[in-house]
Design brief:
By secondary structure, this protein is of the alpha/beta class. It contains 15 helices and 15 strands. The strands form 3 sheets. The protein has a 6-stranded mixed sheet.
Length: 410
């Protein structure tokens, strides 16, 4: 299908995964951005160019400019087709229902569809705008909008219409996604067999300040809590604004350095191993089955894969490779009861969790979300064990889609 000016409909976007991979590999994005800008200058209704410009700016850390380009694109079109060299017209047709925003706003589903014959169309639900009258034909629909305060209204809106959606195959119920806030997850998983998760509450800065001044006890805000505590701004990710505070006296300095409208508060759980290292796993759960995505090893409790020096340490990579090779028969078996409880209580077709092993042997859950990035961008010459595992995850995800779509293949 084409538009009146002979552009395809839906507009063909280069897509988040392709552009993110280019940025991750250190490709100079400026020439591509200039080409896209030339397209927009020649035709300011080129929604695909505007959308890709928005993504590039976000990847370059220019979030405000990126959002402006994305807003311009979404004012023109709300459905975009992900450009793929492998997707065919006879394969599965997936419609993903998404929220506007950066790559943390939605499941980065383009990575999960890598090298598949699955056609991806993304429908953005835009605040204040009706849904488009026409969407591409599709075999199944999946809610990819992730949980956040910013996305809450959008997810509630999706929940209001999703049961009446004409396509009978629907994945990731938005009502379950809405229950993925940190405080909600801690409540859902409390007392779950095999799982350790600290109670988490939302607090306003005034209440934290009163705790710092000694006007409130920690138990008044966090029943059963004890110092050290973990504090982070609401909807923050990748450790931004996250700190461990050893006493109430540290709260005033934290609030001055990390101003926010609201915070998450929980007790710190020490998960350090006997060798002095912390280990954190990212695990994708597909139809209840866990798949390890990465394992980071660090001497710092606040682990993120990019700050754990995995690239620089052959010993850490060897340990991660062993964890990959033995995951199904070791870690997943040891925590089978926990993963079963996790899948049942979360109730989603696809999600991911960041977790560790607690000192008492239980599965320590840090976060559960759908929008965690699961990718195969790491260089195979340094991480040769990663491509087979990531492609195994991608195949499992794609096979789930095929089964749910009735086994349709290209």
């Amino acid at each position: 299908m084409t538009t009146g000016n002979d552009r395809p409909w839906p507009p063909l976007s280069l897509g988040m995964a392709k552009l993110t991979t280019m940025a991750f590999q250190g490709v100079n994005m400026v020439p591509l951005a200039l080409q896209l800008l030339e397209r927009v200058n020649a035709d300011d209704t080129d929604a695909a160019a505007l959308m890709d410009l928005g993504t590039i700016h976000m990847l370059l850390g220019q979030g405000q400019a990126g959002q402006l380009y994305q807003n311009r694109a979404l004012a023109l079109q709300q459905v975009f087709r992900d450009q793929s060299d492998t997707a065919g017209e006879d394969g599965i047709r997936l419609l993903a229902i998404a929220a506007p925003g950066d790559m943390m706003a939605n499941i980065p589903i383009q990575f999960l569809l890598e090298n598949s014959d699955i056609r991806l169309d993304v429908l953005y639900v835009v605040p204040g705008r009706d849904l488009p009258e026409t969407v591409p034909d599709h075999d199944l629909v999946m809610v990819v909008a992730g949980e956040s305060d910013e996305n809450r209204e959008i997810l509630q809106r999706i929940a209001a219409f999703i049961d009446q959606w004409p396509c009978p195959v629907r994945l990731n119920d938005p009502r379950a996604v809405l229950r993925l806030s940190r405080d909600s997850v801690s409540a859902q998983l409390a007392e779950a067999p095999g799982i350790a998760i600290p109670a988490t509450v939302r607090v306003e800065p005034e209440m934290l300040m009163r705790l710092g001044w000694g006007q409130l006890a920690l138990g008044d805000l966090l029943p059963g809590g004890s110092f050290p505590i973990i504090v982070r701004p609401l909807d923050s990710h990748a450790g931004k604004g996250l700190e461990k505070l050893d006493s109430a006296a540290a709260i005033a300095g934290y609030l001055a350095a990390q101003p926010a409208a609201e915070y998450y508060l929980s007790s710190f759980v020490d998960y350090c191993g006997n060798d002095g290292f912390f280990r954190k796993y990212r695990i994708a759960v597909i139809e209840g089955r866990p798949f390890v995505c990465h394992m980071a090893v660090s001497s710092n409790w606040m682990i993120h894969y990019l700050n754990a020096s995995m690239r620089e340490s052959a010993a850490k990579r060897d340990e991660e490779a062993r964890a990959f090779a033995t995951f199904d028969t070791d870690f997943a078996q040891r925590h089978a009861e926990a993963f079963k409880a996790l899948a049942e209580r979360i109730g989603l077709d696809y999600f991911a969790t960041d977790c560790a092993e607690a000192a008492d042997g239980r599965l320590l859950i840090f976060e559960v979300d759908t929008a965690m990035i699961v990718h195969a961008m790491d260089p195979p010459d340094i991480f040769p064990y990663k491509p087979p595992q990531m492609h195994r995850i991608f195949r499992a995800f794609q096979e789930m889609l095929r089964r749910r779509a009735g086994g349709k293949t290209a």
